[in-house]
């Protein structure tokens, strides 16, 4: 049956979901969650995160777990190969001539490094100035390109060697840039952290300034004098008439609130 459905799935505009989606039923999800809770309890580490993979699960629950890590540390996605240990391969491993000797793993021994007086000599040559090596490679690219143009003008049959030299220089330049990426990532992370730190410090300073302004306003309100009720304001009032007494009290309260707000506006102005 699956073989009969395969041509239809390949001919459709969008591919069908994997067949194991049918295993994600509410019953199976409840069972796998129960198994994870049991496994977390047996571990006794007290952590809140259950283990990703549980050993010895039933066969019908296998698809509900994340896939296991590849044994050789390699996997393939969309035709590209990836490794768990993301290590930059050396130029020698790729069959490319190594020109820039910047990486510690690419230190050359018994290389003609030159003497100060005669320009000759042998020894160990190593340094870690990526910017210097990149400048040298770029200048070599320009020089070889000019030589290629001259070769094409005079003897095009000999241009293949110069094209190969340009290819080697370009690959070495790209490799030197890749070696510099960890340092670039650290610098970018440090710059991002500094940006967030400066922003938090600015927000903290603004909050403290507002707190100080609020304290000043509160101190100013504390110094305000509450107006006393005039002696004759309640004369002639009938105490049995509750509505009339409450109206007078409300009027006095509104006047007092108006004075307080006016004083507050004067302090904040």
Automatic annotation (TrEMBL):
The keyword Transcription regulation applies. GO terms for biological process: regulation of transcription by RNA polymerase II. It is found in: Nucleus. One of its GO terms (cellular component) is mediator complex. One of its GO terms (molecular function) is transcription coregulator activity. Its main location: nucleus. Component of the Mediator complex, a coactivator involved in the regulated transcription of nearly all RNA polymerase II-dependent genes. Mediator functions as a bridge to convey information from gene-specific regulatory proteins to the basal RNA polymerase II transcription machinery. Mediator is recruited to promoters by direct interactions with regulatory proteins and serves as a scaffold for the assembly of a functional preinitiation complex with RNA polymerase II and the general transcription factors. This is Mediator of RNA polymerase II transcription subunit 7. It comes from Hapsidospora chrysogenum (strain ATCC 11550 / CBS 779.69 / DSM 880 / IAM 14645 / JCM 23072 / IMI 49137) (Acremonium chrysogenum).
């Amino acid at each position: 049956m699956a073989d009969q459905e395969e041509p239809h799935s390949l001919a459709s505009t969008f591919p069908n979901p994997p067949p194991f989606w049918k295993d994600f039923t509410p019953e199976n999800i409840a069972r796998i969650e129960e198994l994870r809770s049991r496994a977390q309890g047996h571990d006794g580490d007290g952590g809140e995160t259950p283990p990703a993979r549980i050993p010895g699960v039933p066969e019908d629950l296998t698809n509900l777990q994340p896939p296991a890590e590849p044994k050789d540390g390699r996997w393939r996605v969309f035709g590209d190969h990836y490794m768990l240990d993301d290590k930059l391969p050396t130029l020698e491993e790729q069959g490319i001539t190594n020109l820039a000797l910047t990486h510690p793993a690419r230190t050359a021994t018994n290389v003609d490094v030159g003497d100060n007086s005669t320009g000759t000599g042998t020894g160990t040559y190593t340094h870690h100035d990526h910017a210097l090596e990149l400048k040298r490679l770029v200048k070599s690219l320009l020089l070889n390109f000019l030589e290629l143009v001259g070769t094409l003008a005079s003897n095009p049959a000999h241009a293949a060697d110069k094209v190969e030299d340009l290819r080697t220089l370009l690959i070495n330049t790209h490799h030197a840039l890749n070696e510099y990426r960890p340092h670039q990532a650290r610098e970018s992370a440090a710059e991002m952290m500094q940006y967030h730190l400066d922003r938090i410090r600015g927000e903290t300073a603004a909050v403290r300034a507002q707190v100080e302004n609020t304290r000043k306003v509160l101190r100013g309100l504390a110094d305000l004098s509450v107006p006393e009720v005039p002696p004759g304001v309640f004369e002639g009032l009938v105490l049995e008439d509750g509505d009339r007494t409450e109206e007078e009290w409300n009027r006095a309260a509104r006047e007092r609130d108006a004075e307080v707000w006016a004083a507050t506006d004067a302090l904040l102005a």
